[in-house]
Design goal:
With 254 residues, the chain is an alpha+beta fold. It has 3 domains: 102 residues, Serine Threonine Protein Phosphatase 5, Tetratricopeptide repeat; 74 residues; 60 residues, SH3 type barrels, CATH 2.30.30. The protein is built from 8 helices and 7 strands, in the order ααααααααβββββββ. The strands form 2 sheets. Strands 6-5-4-1-7 form a 5-stranded antiparallel β-sheet. A hairpin with a 5-residue loop joins strand 5 and strand 6. Helix 4 packs antiparallel against helix 5 and helix 7 packs antiparallel against helix 8. The protein is globular, with a radius of gyration of 24 Å.
């Protein structure tokens, strides 16, 4: 009984701590929003970053932070947080609009390499839902698969067996595909594979050394894909396919 009482007390403390954290975060968000409404953008940024320091993230929080930086004309920081918001909510039209708007205000206009049909098809399904939704769809599909297996085993009708087998295979494939998309989304969110350039102008090198060959020049606000890391240097790829090396301190990870 004593141990049970201790467990209950511990759980109550955890619940109260979570509630207090949520209330404090909501208060900071509201203070940040009020500061933003009064054009006090530095104060708004400070409030939003205090929420981030509490370990709480959301598309709305990142979006508000990016918008406050945008109003301050700090375009690289605005793009950074808009991209962080997009990472969590890739189909939000407001986020996409603000990213496109901010990108019109940076020097580099880099054309994307055309994607193959299969890649476009995969990206379309990949961006339909977030990781949690894909995970739920995977569980639902698998549950339906188990139900159809039961019908196949227990049914004595030939037609019912054929239908349950056919739809069972579809549900199994849907469950595997949904699980794969959920896992990839989770990995993408938890790992840094893109970054924003934060120096006015920098030259990409052919290898991770200052004396290597100059390849191309890029400017602040440009998004790059991270490929490798060696001794404080990052191997990056631009959207047009150009590859080079940049110092790690020249960028911030999305």
């Amino acid at each position: 009984m004593k141990k049970t009482g201790k467990y209950i007390l511990f759980l109550l403390l955890v619940v109260f701590s979570i509630q207090a954290l949520a209330i404090n975060a909501d208060s900071l968000m509201m203070r940040g929003n009020r500061a933003y409404d009064h054009q006090q953008y530095d104060t708004a940024i400070n409030m939003y970053k205090r929420v981030l320091k509490m370990g709480l993230v959301s598309p709305k929080l990142y979006f508000n932070l990016g918008d406050a930086y945008f109003r301050k004309k700090d375009i690289p920081s605005a793009i950074l947080y808009f991209e962080k918001a997009k990472k969590l909510d890739p189909n939000n039209p407001e986020i996409l609009y603000n990213i496109n708007l901010a990108n019109t205000m940076i020097p580099d206009k880099i054309d994307k390499v055309p994607q193959m049909f299969l890649k476009r098809w995969w990206n379309y399904f990949y961006d339909l839902f977030d990781a949690n939704t894909w995970a739920i769809l995977s569980l639902v599909s698998f549950s339906l698969f188990v139900l159809l297996v039961g019908i196949f085993i227990l049914s004595h009708r030939r037609g019912a067996k054929k239908l349950s087998f056919f739809f069972g295979v579809i549900m199994l494939l849907a469950s595997v595909a949904s699980f794969g998309l959920a896992s990839q989304k989770k990995y993408y969110i938890q790992h840094y594979n893109e970054a924003i350039i934060f120096v006015p102008t920098i030259t990409a090198k052919s290898s991770p050394t200052p004396n290597s060959v100059d390849l191309f020049v890029i400017h602040q606000g440009t998004k790059v894909r991270l490929l490798d890391e060696v001794d404080g240097w990052r191997k990056i790829r631009l959207q047009n396919g150009s590859i080079g090396w940049l110092p790690d301190q020249s960028m911030k990870e999305i």
